[in-house]
Amino acid sequence: MISAALVKELRDITGAGMMDCKKALVETNGNIEEAVTWLREKGIMKAAKKENRIAAEGVCAYAIAGNKAIVYEVNAETDFVAKNQKFLDYVNEIGHAVLNSDAKNDEEALEAKTAEGTVKDLIIAAIATIGEKISLRRVNVFTKTDSQIFGAYSHMGGRIVVLSVLDGDNAEVAKDICMHVAAMSPKYLDRSKVDADFLANETEILRQETLNEGKPENIVDKIVVGKVQKMLKTICLVDQMFVKNQDITVGQYAKDNKSNIVTYIRLEVGEGIEKKKDDFAAEVMAAVNN
């Protein structure tokens, strides 16, 4: 029986996660020194030391098999590593493992089985090999029916990735819509999907803006309605003007080609991560002092 106190002691020494420490102690019959060695050999200590670093580079990717698709992001610390073929091989292996599992989110994806163990084990091995913090996040799972089709597009080597699901069987249309989404970054599919709080907040901002322009109060509401409608056309996918033909909307393009957009997702590397701000002067001073 491995006690919680022993697990905590090993964690304090190594910085590794609780579950990893418990596993190491189980494997070594509770011997702290052997458990430390076990964690080092598995690359877990090296991974733990990098845990607090910021990994905001990397790639977004997708994997499709039959009626199932996943879209996900794997982060690294530098753009240089993100372009490394070894890193990209890890990204592909992670994607196939998650696709072939029942994982529905980031945590479950880490437990997906690979040839070397789990995705978590694979990431630890990648950290040990590549030498940077590597993390998996934003795992999204999509399914479709036999009467639907997936569209997918990767821009700038995975800097931006888009996946779409359409009613119909026109692969070209599905990909065209993905390319449009990559370029125009719509916030919502259509007006029914617009967040109510977001809409209320934007409406109030437009109202105050209109009042500040000196417009008469008796026509402000009418003006605001017009501004809100114009804004919605810019943020809703089906209402945006199609990038390949500015005479029609995306929704009309799909309809003209006997298709209907069911859903889509757009991921861009590093979204939501607070990136490190480079201080060139500090870097120079550090170099001088070393």
Helix-strand layout with pairing:
Elements: H1 4-14, H2 18-27, H3 32-41, H4 44-49, E1 57-65, E2 68-76, H5 79-82, H6 85-99, H7 106-110, E3 113-114, E4 117-118, H8 119-130, E5 135-143, E6 148-155, E7 160-167, H9 171-184, H10 196-212, H11 217-235, E8 241-242, E9 245-249, H12 250-256, E10 260-268, H13 280-289
Antiparallel strand pairs: 1-2, 2-5, 3-4, 6-7, 7-10, 8-9
Helix pairs in contact: 1-2, 1-3, 2-3, 6-8, 10-11
Explain what you see:
The protein is an alpha+beta fold. It folds into three domains: 4-49, Ubiquitin-associated (UBA) domain (Helicase, Ruva Protein, domain 3, Orthogonal Bundle), CATH 1.10.8; 57-184, Tetrahydropterin Synthase, Chain A, CATH 3.30.479.20; 191-255, no CATH class. Helices cover 48% and strands 22% of the residues. The chain contains 13 helices and ten strands. The chain has helices spanning 4-14, 18-27, 32-41, 44-49, 79-82, 85-99, 106-110, 119-130, 171-184, 196-212, 217-235, 250-256, 280-289, and strands at 57-65, 68-76, 113-114, 117-118, 135-143, 148-155, 160-167, 241-242, 245-249, 260-268. The strands form four sheets. The chain has a three-stranded antiparallel sheet. Strands 6-7-10 form a three-stranded antiparallel sheet, with helices on one face. Helix 6 (85-99) runs antiparallel to helix 8 (119-130). The longest helix has 19 residues, at 217-235. The chain is elongated, with a radius of gyration of 24 Å. The two termini are 48 Å apart.
